[in-house]
Amino acid sequence: WAGENPTAGAGGGRISAGGALFLDPGKTLAAGAGLRYLWGGEGADRVSGRALDLGAIGRMKVAGGRRLSLGLSLGDLGASLRRTGGLEQRIPAWIGVGAAIEPARDAVLSMDITSWDRDRGGPVLRAGGEYGFLGKSLKLRTGYARSPSGGRWCAGLGWVTPDWNFDYGLALESGGGSRH
């Protein structure tokens, strides 16, 4: 199963639950955790598994009063997939680091690198930007991700209110096709 995603395709999916909280009154340091249950395949090739992700982010003011955020994430901790017959395979854990800065009002530029992405077969470098309209309620974003298996452009649209968020994303694959 190495280098492939057996939970993708027909009958595959994931359920995720998680949360985060600020660790200080100034809201400059936050930590969070997420738990995922994955499944996919059909018949004798059916697989299921679980994974734990942890993350932390720190925010600070830099020159000109701009906000800089630095993040660290650890993913697929203790993760494994189990086939219908009972064969179990551990999923390699990964680490990610990233940074984001607000170069202008309502704009954010970000970059991150992840040590391993099982869907992409190796490390992934991502860079992108986001711009907020209508008092930051409407978010438009774009970015590019590069991995050993190729690159992809991504775009997104989000609507943010005090009570809920709506988000849509589109990724154009380098070999053709897209993900929504």
Helix fraction, binned, reads under 10%
Helix/strand order, N-terminal first: EEEEEEEEEEEE
pLDDT < 50 runs, ≥5 residues: none
Computed over alpha carbons, the radius of gyration is 18 Å
Shape from CA axes?
globular
Mean pLDDT over the full residue set:
84
Oligomeric assembly? single chain
Q: What profile does the largest beta sheet have? A: 12 strands, antiparallel
Tally of helical runs:
0
- How much strand content do the residues show? over 45%
Number of strands: 12
Cα-to-Cα separation, first versus last residue: 24 Å
Structure class: mainly beta
Describe this structure as you would to a colleague.
By secondary structure, this protein is an all-beta fold. The protein has no helices and 12 strands.
